[in-house]
Design brief:
about 250 residues; alpha/beta; Rossmann fold; 5-stranded parallel beta sheet; two-stranded antiparallel sheet; 10 helices
Length: about 250
C-alpha cells in the first residue's frame, strides 16, 4: 500500500528530526521563552502550506498565550484555487519583494520579541522581507525549514541571501526538497508530501519545550483549554482568562 510507504517516509523524517535537531530546538525554545517571560511576543509567519504550523500554535487546545500568528490571507490556501485570490496569484505574491515589509507595517513589534518563520525552501521574497525587517527592528529571527536541502538554491530576493542565511537560529525540518515522497505508477510527479508533518512535529517539540522552560521558571501560562470535556466546570473561565491575557498583550498594556 502506498499509504504505508508515506507513513514510513514520514516516520523517517521525524526520526531524523529527533536524531539531529534536539539541540537547536532547545536553543530556539529558550529564546522564545525569554521573550514570553518578559511579556513580549513570539511572532509567527509563513506562506502557503507553511501557514499551517502557525494556525496549529495559537489559538489551539494545548497552546498558550505568547505566540502571535501573522497570517496574510492572500498568502494562505484559504482562498479560491482559481479565479479571485487563486493559486497563480499566490505564487506571484510570495515572490514579490517589498510585500513582506508592507505586512510588517500592520503590526507592533518590540526588540525583545522573537520572529519565528516557516519556509520549506527559504528562497521566496516575502519571507526574506519579514526576516530583514525583523532584524532591523532588533528581533531575533528563528527559521524552521528544509535547510540542508535548500543549500545551493538561488534566492529570489535582491539581498542575495536565503531565509536560512539570515536566521539567528535554524531548525532543519529534514524534509526532502521535492516534498512529495511516494512514486505513483504511470505518473511523473510523486504524491504524499511530508513537510507539513515535519513542520508540525518541530512546532510541538518546540512549544512543549518553551512551556517546560517557563514552568520551571515559575511563569504562569495562559493555556487554551478544551471546552468540550464533560464535568470540567472551569474550562470556560480558563478560556476567557487566556483570551483576556492575549488582548492585554496585543494592546501593549
Amino acid at each position: 500500500m502506498l499509504a504505508m510507504q508515506w507513513l514510513e517516509n514520514t516516520r523517517a523524517v521525524m526520526d531524523k528530526i529527533e536524531d539531529t535537531q534536539i539541540g537547536n530546538i532547545k536553543k530556539a525554545a529558550t529564546m522564545m521563552a525569554d521573550s514570553i517571560e518578559k511579556g513580549k511576543w513570539v511572532h509567527t509567519f509563513g506562506c502557503g502550506h507553511a501557514t499551517l504550523p502557525i494556525e496549529e500554535m495559537y489559538p489551539r487546545i494545548g497552546g498558550f498565550v505568547g505566540f502571535h500568528p501573522i497570517v496574510e490571507l492572500p498568502l494562505t490556501f484559504f482562498t479560491n484555487i482559481v479565479g479571485q485570490m487563486g493559486v497563480d496569484q499566490f505564487i506571484f505574491l510570495e515572490r514579490v519583494e517589498g510585500y513582506g515589509r508592507e505586512i510588517m507595517k500592520g503590526h507592533n513589534f518590540d526588540p525583545e520579541d522573537t520572529m519565528w518563520l516557516f519556509s520549506h525552501t527559504g528562497v521566496n521574497a516575502v519571507n526574506i522581507d519579514i526576516a530583514l525587517d525583523a532584524k532591523e527592528k532588533g528581533m531575533k529571527v528563528i527559521v524552521y525549514g528544509s535547510a540542508a536541502e535548500a543549500k545551493g538554491k538561488t534566492t529570489k530576493h535582491s539581498c542575495g541571501k536565503t531565509l536560512f542565511d539570515l536566521a539567528d537560529l535554524v531548525v532543519d525540518t529534514c524534509a526532502p526538497s521535492a516534498d512529495a515522497t511516494v512514486p505513483l505508477k504511470n505518473h511523473i510527479d510523486k504524491i504524499g508530501p511530508v513537510s507539513t508533518m515535519a513542520f508540525m512535529t518541530t512546532v510541538w517539540m518546540t512549544v512543549t519545550t518553551v512551556a517546560e522552560i517557563l514552568a520551571d521558571r515559575d511563569v504562569k501560562l495562559y493555556i487554551h483549554p478544551s471546552h468540550n470535556i464533560p464535568g470540567d466546570s472551569t474550562s470556560k473561565q480558563r478560556l476567557a482568562d487566556a483570551l483576556k491575557e492575549y488582548k492585554r498583550r496585543i494592546a501593549g498594556v
